[in-house]
Amino acid sequence: MSNVPHIPAIRLGRNYESLDKVEVKDHRSGAVLATVSQVNGGIVKRDMAKIGTARECLRGFTVEQLIERSSKAGELFLNGTLPLGDQGHTQSPQQYVETLSLTSGLPHVMVRRNMSKIHYALTHMPFVLNGLSRGLDLSVLDKGFGEQFGTKLSFMPTCQALGLVMPSNSPAVNSLWIPAIALKTPVVIKPGKEEPWTPYRLIQAFIAAGVPAEAFGFYPTDHDGAATILNQSGRALIFGDKSTTQQYASNPAIQIHGPGWSKILVGEDCIENWRDYIDVMVSAISDNGGRSCINASAVVVPRYAAEIADALAQKLGPVGPTTPEDENARLSGFANPKMADYIDGQIDEGLKTPGAEDVTAKYRGGPRKVVFEGGTYMRPTIVRCDSFQHPLANREFLCPYASVVTASPSEVLHQIGYTLACTAITKDPALIAKLEAYPEIERLNIGPLSTMAISWDQPHEGNMFEFLWKRRSIERAW
User: Are 390 and 420 in contact (CB under 8 A)?
Assistant: First the structure.
């Protein structure tokens, strides 16, 4: 057995070793931690033509049985020792934490936090699906029809499989697809280049819990293979920046998970008490190393922008990198140092436009981009902007970054644009009503709640039940 695990592709439930392999490395030392088989677009096309067999393997289970297996998979994912690759290697929870930290740059405490989110979703699947389906008796999906709420009901699947083009930056995004198994839908996954660990571990947990291996495809592949997964699954999720996702923006069968441009808005009625909300703002900006699309990337206020920016900078400016094992770690390293170079350059370039100031600079005591123990890190950055017209006012980066922008309440909804998660610190009924009616906000928190707050029984970046099942009319003579 090789000392370095080999992670195969999984083709309709079967391991597949390719001649073409890539190495997954420690982001600091460059040590090889695994080799991963790569498959080309032609192989993906051939398998997608037979993907109907994967759905068939789930038809023999009830939703209730798959919910039970999802819960068992959650326990195995969090606490079990599971297969890692096809050469006899196994992976304990601690080994998963350490390995993912080495390749992604996330400190151990953040990996465990992400593990807990995934575990919660898997072990609370009845709660999740009850919210997403609005209380539907899910046995209707087993029988194909039924009656509830005083009306006849029937649902049909929208796809043969759920295709997934996953990122490398945050393991918790895998919680978005896991309801698919309980909803009788196979998954076909292209893992992130530096993050095969989480989707592979989840697949092994599901299989160990009794879900047929045929329900899972795991295809480390190129752009052609990724496009095939997206276009031939029937329904798909893609994660990436705007340049990656924009070509699919008009396709309703593909959910786009790109930048969130999440924001905190403070109303006129609460702005005088802004000091009471600084800690909420800090957590919204910096939790999970600032890597989530629901991290706040802008704080919008009617006044006191300079004071609020300075208060945030005092708390975040001194934050620096630590060892991965540090339980108080707040920054993540970059698996690809060129990304840190790009972010640092984009901020510096934006600051050349008048009307903005990097308020954290005076509290940082050094450069924004730093190398620590071989890893590259971006320290927190708070930029005060005079208006939303400034190029740094509505930006999002994979690190703790936020602008503090002045905008009057009467203008704010004309300026904020698309916002995945919005925290509105206000009790003003008129402003709340406008926010509730604003179509560009997907998740709305009223009051001093972090943008990172998640309600699992509500749509979480899209309603997976409605994405995978479509209601249809039904009449029966017998």
Answer: no
Q: How far apart are CA 100 and CA 197, in angstroms?
A: 7
Tell me what the pLDDT averaged over the chain comes to.
93
* Residue 267, SS3 per DSSP: coil
Given this model, what pLDDT does residue 149 score? 81
Q: Residue 372: which residues within 8 A CB-CB, separation 6 or more?
A: 320, 321, 322, 333
- DSSP for 178-225 reads THHHHTT--EEEE-BTTB-HHHHHHHHHHHHTT--GGGEEE--B-HHH
User: Going by DSSP bridges, is the β-strand pair 82-83/90-91 parallel, antiparallel, or unpaired?
Assistant: antiparallel
pLDDT digits (tens, 9 = 90+) for 324-338: 999 999 999 998 999
Q: Dig out the tokens for 365 from the structure.
A: 């005591």
pLDDT tens per residue, range 158-197: 999 999 999 987 898 999 999 999 999 999 999 998 899 9
| Residue 192 buriedness (CB in 10 A; 0-12 / 13-18 / 19+) | buried
* Helix-then-strand count for the chain, H and E: 18, 24
Other CB atoms within 10 Å distance of the CB of residue 382: 29
| Domain 262-446: assigned CATH number | 3.40.309.10
Strand partners, 406: 301
Predicted confidence at residue 1, as pLDDT, reads: 58
Helix (H, G, I), strand (E, B) or coil at 455: coil
Cα distance between residue 281 and residue 108, in whole Å: 23
Q: Which two tokens stand for residue 196?
A: 């095969």
Q: Compute φ and ψ for 11, nearest 5 degrees.
A: -110, 105
DSSP 462: S
- Asked if the model's pLDDT at residue 6 lies above 70, the reply is yes
Query: pLDDT tens for residues 425-455?
Result: 999 999 999 999 999 999 999 999 999 988 8
Amino acid occupying residue 133: S
Q: Determine the Cα angle at 226 with ends 225 and 232, to 5°.
A: 85
Residues 261-286, mean pLDDT to the nearest whole number? 97
Taking the C-alpha atoms of residue 240 and residue 169, their distance in angstroms, rounded to an integer, is 10
Q: Between the CA of residue 387 and those of 67, 136, 240, 350, what are the distances in Å? A: 49, 46, 27, 13
| pLDDT value of residue 20 | 94
The average pLDDT across 307-315 equals 98
Residue 59 contacts residue 65 (beta carbons within 8 Å): no
Q: Position 132: which residue type? A: L
Third-level CATH fold of 6-258+461-471? Aldehyde Dehydrogenase; Chain A, domain 1 (3.40.605)
pLDDT at 461 over 80: no
**How far is the CA of 129 from the CAs of 123, 393, 463, in angstroms?**
12, 37, 10
Where do the domains of the chain lie?
Answer: 6-258+461-471, 262-446
Tokens at 423, concatenated: 């925290």
